[in-house]
Design goal:
mainly alpha
Amino acid sequence: WMSLKRATSGGKKGSEEILNEINDSIPSSVGSHVDLMFTLMNCATSPLVRGTRTKMIKLCYLAFVSVFFESGRREAVPLEIATEFFLNIVESHKDALSEEDSLYQANGRQGSKLIPEILGSLGIFNITQHTTQSEGTKVKESSIFIDHELIREFGLQLRNDPDLTNILDVDNVWRSWNSAYVQAYFTQKSKFLWDEGRPGRTRRHALEKMPTHMLKAGMLEEVESLLTDESFIRGRFWSMGWTEGTRSSTKDTEAYGKRLIKATFAGSPDSPCLHPEECPERIIDICKKLEKGLMEEVARGASGPNGRCTALEAARCMHEISVSLARFSLWVEGGRFCDICVKLMGSNSKSSELLAGLLYNSSVMYSEANDLDRAENRIAACVNMTKVTSGEESIAYVRALCKMGDTLSLNSDYPAADSCFHKCIDLLKAMPARYHLDYGIVLYKLGRNFERRGGYLNQSLHCYEEALDFEKNELGPNNFFIASIYAHMGDVYVDQEDVQQAKHTFMEALECLIETDVNLSTVQSKVEFLSIEGRLNSIHDEPRKAIQKYHNALAMLEKKAPEKKRKIAYMYALLGAETVKIRGFGIAEKFFGESVKILKQVLNPFHLDVAEAFVNLSGVNSLCDHETDATRCLKEACDIQKTRLGDCVESAITLTILASQLKNTKDYDNAEAAYKEAIQMLKGLETDTDLARIDAYLGLADLYASRGSFAEALTYYDHCMGMQRKNFGDCHEDIAHTMFCMAILFQSQDKFDEAEVMLSKCL
């Protein structure tokens, strides 16, 4: 502290005199050694010039710390860049300084050149000299360090300095200071290429930090131009190495992408994009330029400054790029880079745990991109490789097999998925308790497979309940995954018409979400919360409230997560179902139509979810009297199910619905053929098909009654009632309905006694 005072006194005063002045200058409010330190530094950095204290030194130091040391990292800043930086800072604030600053009035803008020397003399800057070898010659350079955290903190404290208030009270002052650094570098080094020779410390600093400063200055177009500059990309590779150079570029690309998306949504003039849809393409273009630079380094061989970039190192870099793209949910491009990584790795090793892991990552990315066939191909290769490298008893194999099952389930190959999950469970039973988290995940995935499959609600619920027990023990009572399990259990209860249990379970899901993330800070948690609230509104017979919740969730998905196509399609279907309840059939038809359109875009044309969407759309087509469209949708659904499932209950049920639609349009011959095909299909199945056959028998009986074929109608009504009594007992409303239909049939034949008997039984 005494050294600081002595330096500002010019050495003309004795130590005792200086000490007395220090004691006199310290305010009584100073309460700690840190306050004392800052008070002394404040005096030292605002010396008297022509009888008035200068602000220029403090202003330049504040700008320096804010631009180069705000994050707390203390790294060297080249002196030549700092000197030019201070000149730009003074120039940008010349109007204010020229009116009131004594140092500026005495020396003008050239006074900025004194700043490094003054701060060095005070001990605030530690200025070192070093030599850099460049193109066979030695070049002397100087750099500035800040040695102590307290000195850095003093610079940040100056933001609240009353002497600087009028100078700092300017829009975008922090941005202008970062812009000053960018200008300082290009003023000094404009004639040099980024990859020219061995870089000195100034260029190395710029290679690492320039994109960050450009972003802070709001220079989005300049950042994109720099990150796609081949010379800059090579300069980073040659200065930092291929892996670190790639990491720096992907880190800067992510920061650029976030700033670009935010600026575009806000309509900021900083953004070069007119629409949010343009943002992903710009991010992808930067990554493609990085890929090109890497492959050039591989092809260069040993002739580069760092020697040869091996295929293994290039693969590591490609993986960095793929992960970066995944953070923006750019799954297709992320999967492509992952495939390149696998190919490069495969040239070194045909089978390894690392290669299996890359195949797993590739499968995840293609699953997220809804390219399920490619995802299935990658995870199958991963399972086979993991079996060889780690063995079937390893957790790596179980996880790969679980992912295989999940992919098959998403691709609507439910029996194959079921087989994968059950094998996982058998293997996990022999594993230690530390893998119970995996056990819960497998059970959850198996429950989802049962739920998607249809007709397995009890099995699905049992899996969810067991998964919930495992996950609560491992994760605690509150976690987003646990909330998701509760939500799916609620859906099953709704399908089972257990309304009270569904309400209770959905409320558990909402409470779990709030406890996990009270502010619902992510898009995923907000959408999940809104959709669960909508389902509760639906259960309470409040369709308008449900519609509002689904609309809000859909708007958030389309704006913040447009890549979640299946979730968006699901929201449209939920909106359609609720809109039907308020008799908005035309609007509901549009909602269901949009759901079908999206699913056809993202899934293969024979996916079973597409078939289900066609069935939903056909129902509302009929309500809108668009019978031709309804028939077409049902035929497409039947074609998909027959192709994927062959003879099964699901195919027979859809055939029965198609037959009913054909009957309503008086296409009796085709309706009869469809009913009989469904009945024949059900008779050939070994599983319990009674409920599906009841519907088919009843529909066919009604068809014959409509055509006046009374004997055939009566035969099928008898078949139907026999199966109803077998399944429901002798007293059930469905049996009463069949009796009523038979009574109407007798009455139409003037058999009034038989009709009266049947109506009496019906009552």
